[in-house]
Write a structure and sequence with these properties.
The protein contains six helices and six strands, in the order ββββαααββααα. It has 165 residues and is mostly helical. The protein has one domain (27-156). It has a two-stranded antiparallel sheet. β3 (13-16) and β4 (19-22) form a beta hairpin. α1 packs antiparallel against α2. It is elongated. It starts with a strand and ends in a 9-residue tail after the last helix.
């Protein structure tokens, strides 16, 4: 594509401000990229999460302040589908299992991994809820900008002019 004195290369995807933008407008590549970054962050603090010297509350704070922001970067503008939600939950449950360790079964007196429902009871704000809450805050923020803002026009679906054929 050429524009007066410049030429632009046509690409299928590119990274802009840490987010992957594709020509198919698919969020799957962005989610997998965020999870890769989250895994790298998780592995950098993994030995601290395994430590018995740190309390569970401190480990939860590490998760909230170091790991989650990396995974949730830019989540306000992405549209999650039911296909992406389980992959995010699997990542979150894996980190939470390390934080809360295992539980001793009262009947058999053996140690076992925590089930998803038990993790849900121990740690209430799950990652999907956080994403939906952030999106609602973003929509409220954009709606307060007024009709002159281009973001507001995109939100309510009022384009500036008619699209050409």
């Amino acid at each position: 594509m050429k524009n007066e004195n410049s030429s632009f290369e046509r690409v299928d995807e590119f990274t802009y401000l840490g987010s992957i933008i594709t020509n198919k407008n698919s969020i799957q590549e962005e989610i997998s990229s965020r999870l890769k970054s989250g895994n790298a962050c998780y592995h950098s603090v993994q030995n601290r999460l395994f430590s018995r010297l740190l309390s569970k509350n401190l480990k939860i704070k590490v998760n909230r302040t170091i790991i989650c922001p990396v995974v949730l970067y830019g989540c306000e503008t992405c549209s999650l589908t039911w296909r992406e939600e389980p992959t995010l939950r699997v990542f979150e449950n894996r980190v939470l299992r390390i934080i809360f360790w295992s539980k001793r079964d009262e009947v058999t007196k053996e140690w076992r991994k925590l089930h998803n429902e038990e993790l849900k009871d121990l740690y209430s704000p799950n990652i999907i809820w956080v994403i939906k809450t952030r999106r609602k805050k973003w929509v409220r923020h954009v709606s307060r900008m007024g009709e002159r803002s281009s973001l507001y026009r995109v939100l309510v679906g009022k384009p500036e002019r008619k699209r050409p054929l």
